[in-house]
């Protein structure tokens, strides 16, 4: 747990530095959690109750339509925050699934406790806002890619953002995430070098 909190501390400090008292208040609310491979951590219809911080493994957030077609929306892995953030922050049922792709370890904080810390510690609230701003910026960039870029451009951008992703995430999920046919994705893997 101590190593996980050190990792969380380094990520939090990079988002928005906290002083000792603010960090102590924030660090007390996290508890360890483990999940097996292909475990649904949060299901569509459930309200997300925890903010997760990934310390090991790979997860994905996906949408399942009424015809059971999947759309992979995001991946999380060490060291990043995870969970269904819109459900968490708005306290509404999720439209998405949060699933482990590999055995995974997290520390997680109940949102009720996180809200209390953020309410009493303005620097923690500012850290949350700074993190959400960066996340929103990334989502907008991703929307432009989805709507305007060719398959090869999407693939190249993914590798620029996360050069290690091909070793972390099964290719079928990456193809789905990029909206590329799996066969064409395999061709891109063999063709494109960054």
From TrEMBL:
Pfam families listed in its UniProt record: cNMP_binding
Domain Cyclic nucleotide-binding residues, every copy: 35-119
GO function terms (MF aspect): kinase activity
Highest rank taxon of the organism: Bacteria
Alphabetic keyword roster: Kinase, Transferase
Cited InterPro entries: cNMP-bd_dom, cNMP-bd_dom_sf, RmlC-like_jellyroll
Protein name: cAMP-binding domain of CRP or a regulatory subunit of cAMP-dependent protein kinases
Organism: Dyadobacter soli
């Amino acid at each position: 747990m101590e190593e996980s909190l050190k990792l969380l501390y380094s990520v939090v400090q990079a988002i928005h530095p906290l002083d000792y008292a603010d960090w102590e208040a924030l660090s007390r609310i996290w508890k360890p959690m483990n999940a097996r491979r292909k475990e649904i951590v949060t299901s569509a219809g459930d309200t997300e109750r925890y903010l997760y911080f990934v310390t090991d493994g790979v997860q994905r957030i996906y949408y399942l339509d009424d015809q059971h077609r999947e759309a992979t929306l995001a991946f999380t892995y060490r060291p990043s925050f995870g969970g269904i953030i819109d459900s968490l922050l708005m306290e509404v049922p999720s439209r998405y699934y949060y699933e482990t792709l590999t055995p995974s370890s997290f520390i997680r904080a109940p949102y009720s406790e996180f809200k209390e810390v953020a309410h009493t510690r303005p620097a923690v609230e500012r850290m949350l806002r700074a993190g959400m701003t960066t996340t929103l910026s990334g989502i907008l960039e991703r929307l432009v890619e989805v709507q305007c870029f060719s398959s090869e451009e999407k693939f190249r951008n993914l590798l620029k953002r996360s050069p290690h992703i091909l070793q972390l995430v099964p290719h079928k999920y990456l193809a789905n995430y990029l909206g590329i046919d799996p066969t064409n994705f395999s061709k891109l893997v063999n063709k494109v070098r960054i």
